[in-house]
């Protein structure tokens, strides 16, 4: 394996899959959990990789990093996936250099999310990078790039309405529940839970339920991580219900959230019992294997089951049982409302911010290649200051050492500015020395 230094922008890649060409089931085959991520970091040097991070969410699995060839990144990530390398290679997008950088900016801003402007992706990027950084896989280039990306995302959040309103995957679940049990109030188009066909409030899929009080429905939320917590708060705030039981593998996490919101919680050992009487089940566990099985739901009446997890944590055999309405993140993403129309109008403003900060990052990178020259000039000026051959230095070397060092730094700053503006070196090298001794 070639292990030469590949840390130049031409060797920066983004390789991945997302919701645009895959469904939730296929994405689940390539999801990377924390344990797998740790393993990939441990074996990365065997693949000639020194700087990279992996982003795995319900929308995507991507790897960003430096390599001689993108196949090194693909080879690494597919060592732990349930899906095979051939399929991943066929469906994956491969972006290089500027295109890879631009893609990361778009992802962080929510421009590439299933639900436009979904701001949760920013925290996911931070966590992914932090994980790689603790193992020494984030260098100066990536550090600067991520800082620029985060700066752009925060500026878009502050100065545009791209993430305005309440639309997110967690909130889409609330919309879906309301529509499913109460019927639409403004007849927005959405997907039917069972057929995935487009329907409106006049379709018979709603007529069977009629107007129902959601507060009377027992809700079980399994998994109280970030998305589960967000979904839970939305249920309380927008559906005006507290008939919710929280279950989490770490019972303390569930009890803390339950206490905060005035809800009930139950231990994981009571899962079967709690699911038996549930009308609505939300799953956000992100386990590697299904946690809700056919035996949990079979013969237990009608239930609406919403799974935020990738891979899906509801067994396939359970998804198609009579009376079970199963919804995954792909279905939730198709729910539309006025907020999304407003967000779409903000895209041009977001692009202006991205282009500006991308330009600044590229300018920083362009200057990095001149660092050796700038150091050489600084050293040369210091040599002139102490050179005993130069007898008469009183007109340009007067003052203390600190004052002279300050003068040298001003000269170097001026030289850097001229290089950046005119992208030439030779004449400015001579001019820097002349400025110093003038």
Strand percentage: 5-15%
Strand order of the largest sheet: 9-8-7-10-11-12
Distance between the termini: 53 Å
Class by SSE composition: alpha/beta
Q: Indicate the overall shape.
A: elongated
Q: Helix count, per DSSP?
A: 20
* Gyration radius, rounded: 28 Å
Sheet bearing the most strands, described?
6 strands, parallel
Unreliable sequence segments: 1-5, 186-208
Q: Helical amount among residues, as a percent range?
A: 40-55%
Average pLDDT, all residues? 85
Beta-strand segment tally: 12
Structure explained in plain terms:
There is one protein chain. With 438 residues, the protein is an alpha/beta fold. 50% of the residues lie in helices and 12% in strands. It has a six-stranded parallel sheet with strand order 9-8-7-10-11-12. It has a four-stranded antiparallel sheet with strand order 2-3-1-4, sandwiched between helices. Mean pLDDT is 85; it is low at 1-5 and 186-208.
